[in-house]
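Bumping with the actual sequence this time:
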Amino acid sequence: MSEKAQTNQRMLLVIVTSPDSENVENALGKTAYPFAKLPSVGGLLRERNVTFLIGCPEEETDQLRKLLQDVAGRRIGYVAPVIDNLPMGSLIPTEVQIGGVTIFDMEIEHYEEIG
Protein backbone atom coordinates (compact mmCIF):
# COMPACT_ATOMS: atom_id res chain seq x y z
CA MET A 1 0.00 0.00 0.00
CA SER A 2 1.56 3.30 -1.05
CA GLU A 3 1.87 6.40 1.13
CA LYS A 4 -0.28 8.32 -1.37
CA ALA A 5 -3.11 5.79 -0.97
CA GLN A 6 -2.97 6.22 2.80
CA THR A 7 -3.19 10.00 2.86
CA ASN A 8 -5.46 10.85 -0.08
CA GLN A 9 -8.28 8.35 0.29
CA ARG A 10 -11.86 9.27 1.23
CA MET A 11 -14.79 7.10 2.15
CA LEU A 12 -18.24 8.22 1.16
CA LEU A 13 -21.14 6.82 3.16
CA VAL A 14 -24.04 7.17 0.71
CA ILE A 15 -27.71 6.56 1.56
CA VAL A 16 -30.21 6.15 -1.29
CA THR A 17 -33.77 4.87 -1.49
CA SER A 18 -34.13 1.17 -2.21
CA PRO A 19 -35.58 1.70 -5.74
CA ASP A 20 -32.51 3.80 -6.65
CA SER A 21 -30.00 1.30 -5.25
CA GLU A 22 -29.85 -0.85 -8.37
CA ASN A 23 -29.03 2.20 -10.53
CA VAL A 24 -26.30 3.25 -8.09
CA GLU A 25 -24.87 -0.27 -7.94
CA ASN A 26 -24.81 -0.55 -11.75
CA ALA A 27 -23.14 2.85 -12.11
CA LEU A 28 -20.51 2.02 -9.47
CA GLY A 29 -19.89 -1.35 -11.13
CA LYS A 30 -18.73 0.52 -14.26
CA THR A 31 -16.14 2.46 -12.23
CA ALA A 32 -13.02 1.40 -10.36
CA TYR A 33 -14.34 2.55 -6.97
CA PRO A 34 -14.52 -0.23 -4.37
CA PHE A 35 -17.86 -0.31 -2.55
CA ALA A 36 -19.97 -2.27 -0.10
CA LYS A 37 -23.78 -2.28 0.02
CA LEU A 38 -25.80 -2.50 3.25
CA PRO A 39 -29.61 -2.51 3.69
CA SER A 40 -31.04 0.13 6.03
CA VAL A 41 -34.44 1.54 7.07
CA GLY A 42 -35.38 5.07 8.04
CA GLY A 43 -36.99 8.33 7.11
CA LEU A 44 -40.42 9.77 7.78
CA LEU A 45 -42.28 7.11 5.79
CA ARG A 46 -40.05 4.28 7.07
CA GLU A 47 -39.01 3.48 3.53
CA ARG A 48 -36.29 0.99 2.85
CA ASN A 49 -32.94 2.51 2.02
CA VAL A 50 -29.58 1.18 0.97
CA THR A 51 -26.30 2.44 2.40
CA PHE A 52 -23.19 2.27 0.22
CA LEU A 53 -19.65 2.57 1.58
CA ILE A 54 -17.51 3.81 -1.31
CA GLY A 55 -13.74 4.26 -1.40
CA CYS A 56 -12.58 7.16 -3.53
CA PRO A 57 -9.40 9.18 -4.12
CA GLU A 58 -9.77 12.68 -2.69
CA GLU A 59 -9.41 14.40 -6.08
CA GLU A 60 -12.31 12.35 -7.53
CA THR A 61 -14.99 12.99 -4.88
CA ASP A 62 -16.71 15.74 -6.90
CA GLN A 63 -16.89 13.43 -9.93
CA LEU A 64 -18.36 10.66 -7.78
CA ARG A 65 -20.95 13.03 -6.25
CA LYS A 66 -22.04 14.08 -9.76
CA LEU A 67 -22.41 10.41 -10.79
CA LEU A 68 -24.55 9.68 -7.71
CA GLN A 69 -26.74 12.72 -8.32
CA ASP A 70 -27.28 11.69 -11.96
CA VAL A 71 -28.44 8.15 -11.12
CA ALA A 72 -30.34 8.77 -7.86
CA GLY A 73 -31.34 12.43 -7.78
CA ARG A 74 -34.60 13.80 -6.37
CA ARG A 75 -37.75 13.57 -8.44
CA ILE A 76 -41.49 14.05 -8.00
CA GLY A 77 -43.71 11.12 -6.94
CA TYR A 78 -47.32 10.82 -5.85
CA VAL A 79 -48.88 9.19 -2.78
CA ALA A 80 -52.51 8.92 -1.69
CA PRO A 81 -52.64 10.16 1.91
CA VAL A 82 -55.03 8.49 4.32
CA ILE A 83 -57.58 10.85 5.88
CA ASP A 84 -59.09 9.52 9.09
CA ASN A 85 -62.69 10.66 8.50
CA LEU A 86 -63.07 9.12 5.04
CA PRO A 87 -63.99 5.42 4.92
CA MET A 88 -61.83 4.65 1.85
CA GLY A 89 -59.06 7.21 2.42
CA SER A 90 -58.28 10.10 0.14
CA LEU A 91 -58.44 9.55 -3.60
CA ILE A 92 -56.51 12.73 -4.34
CA PRO A 93 -52.81 11.97 -4.83
CA THR A 94 -50.37 14.33 -3.15
CA GLU A 95 -47.10 15.36 -4.75
CA VAL A 96 -43.95 14.43 -2.78
CA GLN A 97 -40.24 14.46 -3.49
CA ILE A 98 -38.70 10.99 -3.65
CA GLY A 99 -35.19 9.76 -4.22
CA GLY A 100 -32.14 11.79 -3.57
CA VAL A 101 -28.78 11.00 -2.07
CA THR A 102 -27.43 11.63 1.42
CA ILE A 103 -23.61 11.69 1.42
CA PHE A 104 -21.21 11.65 4.36
CA ASP A 105 -17.66 12.33 3.17
CA MET A 106 -15.02 11.04 5.58
CA GLU A 107 -11.26 11.26 5.49
CA ILE A 108 -9.45 7.97 5.93
CA GLU A 109 -6.45 8.53 8.15
CA HIS A 110 -5.42 4.88 8.28
CA TYR A 111 -6.63 1.51 7.16
CA GLU A 112 -5.26 -2.02 7.15
CA GLU A 113 -6.04 -5.12 5.15
CA ILE A 114 -5.67 -8.20 7.30
CA GLY A 115 -5.50 -11.65 5.84
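The C-alpha coordinates above came from a reply further down the thread. The mean pLDDT is 84.
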